[in-house]
Amino acid sequence: MSQDHVAKRCSICGRFRSYEAEDAFCIVCGSDALEAECGCGRRFDFSLEEPEDADLYCPRCGRSLRGRSDEFTG
User: Partner of 58 for a Cys bridge, out of 10, 21, 38, 71, CB 3.0 to 4.6 A?
Assistant: First the structure.
């Protein structure tokens, strides 16, 4: 991933993707709920190497990072 790209997670659809740092909207669901790091401050760069169907947890705090919000309708 280049330095002007960052791994972000959409808190609505739960998908991880590489975005430009200024990007604010999810390419999957269109939400403006992108997060560049876990609540504990751990960046999501590790997430892009994992299969999309695997369970995923923050390596720092253990928070579950897979799954969709109840708001996701797609």
Answer: 38
Helix or strand run (H / E) with residue 6: strand 5-10
d(CA 72, CA 62): 23
pLDDT tens per residue across span 43-60? 999 999 888 778 889 999
- Strand 5-10 to strand 16-20: parallel, antiparallel, or no bridges (unpaired)? antiparallel
* pTM > 0.85: yes or no: no
By CB atoms closer than 10 A (0-12, 13-18, 19+), residue 5 is middle
Q: Do 8 and 35 meet the contact criterion of CB atoms below 8 Å apart?
A: yes
Using CA atoms, how far residue 25 sits from 30, 42, 49, 51, in Å, is 5, 21, 21, 22
